Amino acid sequence: MIDQAASPILSTLETTFEGNQIQKDAFNMxxxxxxxxxxSEAYKFTPITASLEKNIDFxxxxxxxxxxxxxxxxxxxxxxxxxxxxxxxxxxxxxxLDLEIGEIxxxxxxxxxxxxxxFAKQEVTISSGTKRPVFIYHFNSNGFSNSRVFVQVKDGHTxxxxxxxxxxxxxxxxxxxxxxxxxxxxxxxxxxxVQNYNANTYSHETVVADVARDSHFYNNxxxxxxxxxxxxxxxxxxxENCEGYMYGLFLLDKKSHIDNNTSVDHQKPNxxxxxxYKGILDEKSLGVFNGKIYVRQDAQKTNAFxxxxxxxxxxxxxxxxxxxxxxxxxDVKCSHGCTSGQLDEDAIFYLRARGIAEKNAQAMILNxxxxxxxxxAKIDAVVSEVQGLIDEKLT
Length: 395
Prior knowledge:
alpha/beta, ten-stranded mixed beta sheet, 2 domains
């Protein structure tokens, strides 16, 4: 049994728990280790458990409002998830997309992944075979929902996946999503997330990519608003000549709280990774970046680069950044760094001297600062949406 005083969330969820043996094992393990608490090093700037206890009704069940106008107009398969479960009726699935819905299988053993394993209603497996992108839309209205997606990218294939979450403004919701990529040999996988949530959305999103020999994995994460959003991104470069790329932009205002926690693990020789995250923070927003690079002893000839650059527009905005390297090999090229500051007054003066209003000058500089993270987004509709959100925030 669960100590109710210690874990009110798990006590509430225990009354509705249903699942197979794997899910029972995950729930039991979660009971033992508990949800992240205020002394958890990995969540010390993002007190997610306390925030959920205060704001989320884990027994809330409501029908989700579906607005198909919010779907992209691009060709491809469009998968609609309602409160964590795939709705084939609302989805548009092309014939060449190999898709299966099955029971929950074992996953990672960190607390929020265990929570997803225990309470996900289904596991959706997607196999590459389509040349067109796959779009996933998460429509949420329940107090608590979990989606669980496994992507198999076959040897020699190229696969693109785009995700976004949509929540009605009147609901306070917690979305706990888990996505895994298995990238085969000589394959390319592109994953893009657009996070423009309402001010009542709490979201924990885990992405894990296992990358085989001679393959590339790209992740783009664009974050604009949310009560509290935690992104856990892990790329495992498991063989020689693997490449991993991580690009992120968090452009925040109001009281939005975005936490990006990334990890790339170089396990074999001759691998490459490049990570660039940029943040623009205004008003009382809070941003967190914690990036780790691991280079194993066998991973000689590794090239790994990491950069986090930030601009704070308000004295009330808060930023925590911590780039990290752990290297056990001796023949490598690795670098990391971060910058945090305010707008360049000289650049503003230069533009104003040429007749550009101060507000417009600031917007031009910030737009140029943010634009580099957009260069690797491949879908025109996504680029247009993100650019529109950037313009909206900066004007």
